[in-house]
Design goal:
The protein is an all-alpha fold. It has helices at residues 5-25, 37-43, 68-81, 85-109, 114-126, 128-134, 140-162, 165-181, 185-197, 208-231, 235-240, 246-266, 273-294, 300-328, 337-344, 348-362.
Length: 375
């Protein structure tokens, strides 16, 4: 049955709203220039005749990161835009719009109410964490990883409810691209394992199809680690651990991350006067909505979305913690806008996870129409 014209127009209209609001939010950066790592990322692709070379050659200084897809995009954008910052900022803005649209699609696919899914995606897109991440051009890695990772999660959601092999193949390819963009995509793969493995309503035990889905994702991660170990030199990790231990790096990174996470999400150090009062009223209304949603029925699908969101929140922090202490340890939210921009990327993917969790808390997702067959 064909949808009413008003319904068919909702998604294009929503995308236009997302795009307009994001461009309005990042307008201050459009007159800016390149900073810090931007210069390195702009210059490095000029030495590559083959844009695929980063896939099998060290490409990030220090040998700690395997992010070839980001370098491919920098290679393309440098050839197209040269050293004109405006066009590079517009490309980053387009990526942020695409990420917000991907979040909207994932929340709807997971059964969240259409209005809740759109508002959460919009709130994510214009949040200071997302905007600050977007306006540092070097964070293009993060945007790419989230874009492909969210698209992969949508495919995983279809695989969870339908069991089609094509959906699993699509998810695997998209996750491979996300991992090639940035290692933080591991957090989204962890969420995918939750979405696939979580029991379905009316089918409490795991099925062979879900076992296969989890094993494919585990094999993908293992293959990524192997490729990373082959391409990157061991000196990068050795230098990082020269004066400390892995446990200490993770511990210091976690402390620095948790110490400032509420400042980046709550923004309280930046608020005063009328803005602070309006913020408190908005938070109270949101708490009321959450309390209302908590009283509705908790299906397994709803629990799967909640747990997947919390996994993204914590796992994306865990992936970063070995180096978070080195970055956030010298930054203090609210002291200078420039410091806030530098630190925001550490909370970009965790914010995605919170949006997923909030969608589950606000109202129970609708039950999928199809169920995977038991094997």
């Amino acid at each position: 049955m064909m949808a009413p014209p008003s319904n068919r127009l909702l998604r294009p209209a929503g995308l236009l709203v997302l795009a307009g609001v994001v461009l309005l939010a990042v307008r201050g950066s459009l007159g800016g220039g390149f900073v810090f790592d931007d210069f390195y990322l702009l210059a490095l692709p000029r030495y590559y005749d083959n844009p695929l070379l980063p896939f099998w050659q060290e490409h990030v200084e220090g040998g700690l990161h395997y992010r070839p897809l980001g370098l491919v995009l920098w290679w393309i954008s440098e050839r197209l835009f040269g050293a004109r910052p405006l066009l590079h900022y517009l490309l980053n803005a387009a990526l942020l719009i695409a990420v917000a649209a991907g979040l909207w699609r994932l929340l709807e696919a997971s059964g969240a109410r259409r209005s809740h899914a759109f508002v959460l995606a919009l709130a994510f897109a214009v949040s200071p964490v997302a905007v600050a991440t977007d306006i540092w051009l070097a964070n293009r890695y993060e945007l790419l990883a989230c874009l492909f990772g969210l698209a992969a999660l949508v495919a995983c959601r279809r695989y969870r409810t339908g069991g089609a092999t094509s959906d699993l193949v699509i998810a695997t390819v998209l996750f491979a691209l996300a991992l090639a963009a940035k290692e933080s995509a591991l957090a989204l793969i962890a969420a995918a394992v939750v979405l696939i493995a979580w029991p379905l309503d009316g089918l409490a035990r795991w099925t062979g199809l879900r076992d296969r889905g989890v094993l494919v994702l585990v094999a993908l991660v293992a293959a990524w680690f192997v490729v990373r170990a082959v391409v990157l030199p061991a000196e990068g990790v050795d230098a990082l651990l020269a004066d400390t231990s892995p446990a200490r790096l993770v511990r210091e990174g976690a402390i620095a991350w948790f110490r400032q996470w509420w400042s980046f999400f709550g923004l309280w150090p930046r608020l005063d006067g009328f803005v602070a009062a309006a913020y408190l009223i908005g938070m109270l209304l949101f708490v009321v909505l959450l309390a209302s949603g908590l009283r509705s029925a908790w299906s397994r699908d709803r629990m799967a979305l909640l747990v997947a969101g919390l996994v993204v929140f914590l796992a994306s922090g865990l992936v970063q913690w070995p180096r978070t202490g080195l970055a956030l340890g010298h930054l203090q939210f609210g002291r200078a806008t420039f410091e806030d921009v530098l630190g925001a990327r550490h909370y970009f993917m965790p914010w995605l996870g919170l949006a997923m969790a909030f969608a589950a808390l606000l109202a129970a997702p609708a039950a999928p129409a199809r169920r995977v067959r038991a094997i």
